């Protein structure tokens, strides 16, 4: 997020524009909380995790009156164009503002990687690397203790983070909200693995999967035939931390592209990474849409799980 704000500001300075940052998302926009930015103020932003501008969900902004008030607040502050950095909800808000006459460019940022129109959102690669680091450490512990470990990663509605971290972490199984898994099947795999002499068994479970990580842990322990199971919820560790080089570069590309789109008078678009190209995708095409999990990746995670046979 910070790397994206820095990129937008730097690209805007390059055009001779004045830059103001909005604090606390749409809540701050409604209250006219603008912070004037010069290039000195951006020192160190590239490597910082989280968002230095703050973020807040706003119920007020969700109303029609709230959105019109937000446009008014921007106009009163002399804002001629706005760049919104965020997930599906934030980009829906961006479209609403653009439709009310405030030129907006969107940048997709969410660790869920569920925004349509882009292969990757900002934050995904950083969260993924964090999740993989957790799985690696858990596997060390699991091997030492001959245990099963269930690792819960974020993703209420989308299994991207779970599948990709299972693939990169070499997990033995993965559960996501998109695909049904019978706990008995996991217990069977686990027992095969135990009998095959494997020192550990690691299952990655999306927050929104059914059974949940907690339920699966209970099933394994109730079966009581092989490994004992422990649960680790990665939680908000996944949404913090300095961004990876990939995320910093993506933020730079998307930020510069957003400013260019506004400069070209081509507002109402989200900047999306498609292949290795940054495309301008109409916000109305992606709002309300989801980027579905690729079932091929889910199948691959299962295929590469190293269950002894
Ligand atoms: N359908 C919508 N139309 C307009 N504004 C919206 C809509 N949904 C959410 N918002 C606004 O966007 C802001 C952020 O939304 P939300 O909390 O859903 O996060 P997000 O951008 O989708 O990111 P995350 O991936 O973290 O969920 C909120 O302040 C909310 O008021
Ligand atoms: O605790 P909160 O605010 O609901 O945030 C966690 C949620 O945010 C996300 O990280 C992004 O939408 C989800 O994967 C997760 O469910």
From TrEMBL:
EC number: 2.7.1.11
A GO cellular-component term linked to this record: 6-phosphofructokinase complex
Gene3D superfamilies with a match to the protein in the record: 3.40.50.450, Phosphofructokinase domain (3.40.50.460)
Signal peptide feature range: none
Keyword terms, alphabetized: ATP-binding, Cytoplasm, Glycolysis, Kinase, Magnesium, Metal-binding, Nucleotide-binding, Transferase
NCBIfam families for the chain: PRK03202.1 (NF002872)
Name this protein carries in UniProt: 6-phosphofructokinase
Native species: Rubrobacter marinus
């Amino acid at each position: 997020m910070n790397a994206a704000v820095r990129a937008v500001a730097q690209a805007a300075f390059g055009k001779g524009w004045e830059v103001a940052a909005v604090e606390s998302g749409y809540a701050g926009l409604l209250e006219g909380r603008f912070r004037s930015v010069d290039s000195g103020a951006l020192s160190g932003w590239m490597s910082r995790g989280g968002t230095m501008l703050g973020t807040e969900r706003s119920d007020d902004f969700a109303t029609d009156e709230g959105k019109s008030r937000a446009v008014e607040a921007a106009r009163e502050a002399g804002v001629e164009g706005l760049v919104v950095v965020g997930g599906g909800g934030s980009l829906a808000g961006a479209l609403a503002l653009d439709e009310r006459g405030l030129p907006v460019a969107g940048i997709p940022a969410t660790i869920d990687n569920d925004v349509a129109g882009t292969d990757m959102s900002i934050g995904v690669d950083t969260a993924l690397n964090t999740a993989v680091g957790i799985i690696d450490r858990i596997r060390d512990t699991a091997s030492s203790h001959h245990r099963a470990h269930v690792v819960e990663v974020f993703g209420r509605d989308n299994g991207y983070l779970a599948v990709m971290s299972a693939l990169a972490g070499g997990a033995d199984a993965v559960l996501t909200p998109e695909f049904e898994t019978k706990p008995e099947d996991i217990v069977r795999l686990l027992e095969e693995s135990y009998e095959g002499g494997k020192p550990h068994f690691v299952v990655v479970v999306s927050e929104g999967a059914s059974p949940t990580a907690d339920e699966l842990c209970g099933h394994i322990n109730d079966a009581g035939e092989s490994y004992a199971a422990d649960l680790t919820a990665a939680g908000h560790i996944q949404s913090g931390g300095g961004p990876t080089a990939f995320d910093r570069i993506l933020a730079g590309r998307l930020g510069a592209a957003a400013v260019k789109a506004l400069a070209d008078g081509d507002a109402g678009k989200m900047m999306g990474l498609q292949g290795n190209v940054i495309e301008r995708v109409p916000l109305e095409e992606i709002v309300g849409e989801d980027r579905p999990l690729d079932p091929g990746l889910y199948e691959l995670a299962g295929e590469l799980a190293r269950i002894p046979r």
